[in-house]
Amino acid sequence: MALTNPDSPLRLGVNIDHVATLRNARGGADPDPVRAALLAQKAGADGITLHLREDRRHILDADLPAIMAAVNLPINLEIAATEEMQRIALVHRPHAVCLVPERREERTTEGGLDVVRDVARLTDFIAPLTETGARVSMFIAPDEAQVEASAKIGAQVIELHVGAYCEYSAEGNEEARDTELRRLFASAALAQELGLEVHAGHGLNFANVGPIAAIPEVVELNIGHFLIGEAVFVGLEAAIREMRRQMSLARM
């Protein structure tokens, strides 16, 4: 099933979690994640991504409805597959819900969701979400078994975890990087054959985004930590516009 045109524009979802992380470090209202979402929209983002973690280290409960009310962009809500998070998603009905693995002791999301091991539960978990019209995504490693399981449970989207590729790139380990990149290309191709939309994210920056943006089946990148960090030096709008430029160059 052909879902994408390799020459079509690549969407950018901007993850604003770490604006909330800065706010929470001191308490109070600043910096305001809503303001960040509005700046991202102004700079040309195609969507806003946020992760409501069980420990609330990033976005807080009140941020979700405030951001949804403020921007005219699709909201991609990342959550763990828990009853509490399912209830929140069903109440607020974001455009998209991305299921991610979550451990309290991790600094950030480590690895992809193990859909293969949890097919029955995840099938039941996502059913009410899809009934509300949410586009449900599985955040998975580039593994063909995980892609097939994601299609089996009824997900509409997968987001490929590109963290290993990014780490190998930073280390200068070209052999491991290229092996991981081949896995990403193969998983994206299989996902499209199975009727899944393909997104990618985790650890992308100006230096490593090109090969991922060049994967023809990928239609959206979700990028957060690097953009918020770069914004300290050049401003959020400039950081987003430069990322869009790098993505466009790779797509050509």
What does this structure look like?
The chain has eleven helices and eight strands. It has a single domain (11-251), classed as TIM Barrel (Alpha-Beta Barrel), CATH 3.20.20.70. The protein is globular, with a radius of gyration of 17 Å. The chain has an eight-stranded parallel barrel, surrounded by seven helices. The protein has helices at residues 17-26, 33-43, 63-70, 83-92, 119-131, 144-153, 163-171, 174-193, 209-213, 225-234, 236-251, and strands at 11-15, 47-51, 75-79, 96-99, 135-140, 157-161, 197-201, 218-223. Strand 7 (197-201), helix 9 (209-213) and strand 8 (218-223) form a beta-alpha-beta unit. It is an alpha/beta fold. The model is unreliable at 1-6 (pLDDT under 50).
Q: Give me the CATH architecture, please.
A: Alpha-Beta Barrel
Principal-axis shape equals globular
The H/E string reads: EHHEHEHEHEHEHHEHEHH
Q: Give the neighbour order of strands across the main sheet.
A: 1-2-3-4-5-6-7-8
Q: What does the main sheet amount to? A: 8 strands, parallel, barrel
Specify the CATH class: Alpha Beta
- Beta strands, count: 8
- The CATH homologous superfamily is called Aldolase class I
CATH topology: TIM Barrel
Uncertain runs: 1-6
Report how far the terminal alpha carbons are from each other. 23 Å
Structural class: alpha/beta
Task: Return Rg in Å.
Answer: 17 Å
**How many domains is the backbone divided into?**
1
Strand content: 15-25%
Number of helices: 11
Instruction: Kindly state the percentage of residues in helix.
Output: 40-55%
- Mean of residue pLDDT values: 94
Secondary-structure blueprint:
Elements: E1 11-15, H1 17-26, H2 33-43, E2 47-51, H3 63-70, E3 75-79, H4 83-92, E4 96-99, H5 119-131, E5 135-140, H6 144-153, E6 157-161, H7 163-171, H8 174-193, E7 197-201, H9 209-213, E8 218-223, H10 225-234, H11 236-251
Parallel strand pairs: 1-2, 1-8, 2-3, 3-4, 4-5, 5-6, 6-7, 7-8
Helix pairs in contact: 2-3, 2-11, 5-6, 6-8, 7-8, 10-11
